[in-house]
Every structure is written in C-alpha cells, then in structure tokens.
C-alpha cells in the first residue's frame, strides 16, 4: 500500500513509559512523539504496511517463528489472520501486542498469567478490574524482585570495594 497524500504519514508506535504501554499515532513516526519520561521505548512500524509474514515479525521482534506459533497455539496471541494460502499475516496491532507480551516476559510474568491476561483482553471491557488486579499483583512481585536485586547488588559493590582496596594497598607496598 502506498501513501500518496501530502499530509504527514501517521505511524503507530508502542510507547512504554513508567510501566504503562500505550499506542500512539504520531506524524512522521516516533521522532515527533512527545517524550514524557526517560524510559520511553518506541517500536516504529514500516510505513504504509499492516500485514507482515511470520519471518518479518520474527526479525522485528527477535522472537523465533516457532515461538510465535507457540504463542498462537497456547492462546497468548489473538486470532492471527491468514492469507489465501494459509500463511500467517500479522498486523500492527499484533506487533503492539507482542511488544506488551515482551515487556511482561521481561518482568518474569508466568506464561499462564500472560495467557490469562490475553483471555481477559479478548473478553472485553467488562474485565478491566480483573486485568488491573492481575497486573497490580504482578507489579508487586516485580518490585519485590527489584528490592532483592538491589540488596544483592549492594553486597557485590561491597566485595568489589574490598578487593579494590586490597589491590591498592598491595601495589603501594609493592
């Protein structure tokens, strides 16, 4: 599909900022998007297209074709369109969903919880409260793990300082 109008091309992007994931439509892509915090991550979409093969999605997301098929099989991916020859055709909306799933994966959300979240999304607006609860519980788990990692990092910093001081004293004597 070619864009032939003189208006700026509208490109959908997924913005992750402060833990929220939202889709924005921005003129001429992500460089025009308002930057409201330092954690923003933009995932630009190829202009003028809204159908991608599984290999294109794999290249774009870093997921393997096998993983994408598995996501579909277990119900983590919404219905993926098929071409007249039966090949999967992913949309920009699918790419946005995969970006969110990737963030949930990075935070350590169990696959069963991600699948449950996907089911709730498909069930519609009546599930907002349950979706919020699921994400709130998960956020608390993430915060707990972050606190554990910060404590572990403090121990590592302490040990590194001990070895650096010992090396410095040895070289001064030396």
From TrEMBL:
Keywords: DNA-binding. InterPro entries: DNA-bd_dom_put_sf (IPR009061), MerR-type_HTH_dom (IPR000551), MerR_fam (IPR047057). The keyword rRNA processing does not apply. SMART domains: HTH_MERR. Residues 51-120 form the HTH merR-type domain. SUPFAM superfamilies: Putative DNA-binding domain. One of its GO terms (molecular function) is DNA binding. Signal peptide: none annotated. It comes from the Bacteria. The keyword DNA-binding applies. This is MerR family transcriptional regulator. It comes from Streptomyces benahoarensis.
């Amino acid at each position: 599909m070619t864009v032939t109008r003189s208006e700026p091309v509208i490109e959908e992007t997924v913005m992750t900022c402060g833990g929220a994931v939202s889709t924005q439509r921005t003129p001429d892509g992500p460089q025009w998007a308002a930057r409201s915090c330092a954690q923003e991550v933009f995932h630009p979409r190829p202009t003028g297209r809204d159908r991608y093969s599984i290999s294109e999605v794999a290249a774009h997301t870093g997921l393997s074709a096998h993983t994408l098929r598995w996501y579909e099989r277990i119900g983590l991916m919404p219905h993926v369109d098929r071409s007249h020859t039966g090949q999967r055709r992913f949309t920009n909306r699918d790419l946005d969903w995969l970006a969110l799933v990737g963030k949930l994966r990075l935070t350590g959300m169990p696959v069963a919880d991600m699948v449950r979240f996907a089911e709730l999304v498909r069930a519609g607006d009546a599930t907002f409260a349950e979706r919020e609860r699921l994400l709130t519980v998960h956020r608390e788990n993430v915060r707990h793990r972050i606190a554990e990692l910060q404590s572990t990092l403090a121990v590592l910093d302490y040990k590194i300082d001990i070895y650096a001081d010992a090396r410095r004293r040895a070289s001064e004597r030396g």
